[in-house]
Amino acid sequence: MPRQRDYKAEYQRRIANAAKRGLSRSQARGHAKAGETTVGKRTVKDVDKFEDALKLYRQTGNRAAAAKAVGIAPERFSRFLADAVAVFGRGKSLKISDDRPREMVVMTNGECHRIKLRDFDHASLNGDHLNAVKAFLTSNNPNSLRPFAGKSVLDVKGKAHPLETDPNTLHRIAASGEPAFPEIYRIVQ
Question: How high is the pLDDT of residue 182?
Answer without folding.
Answer: 46
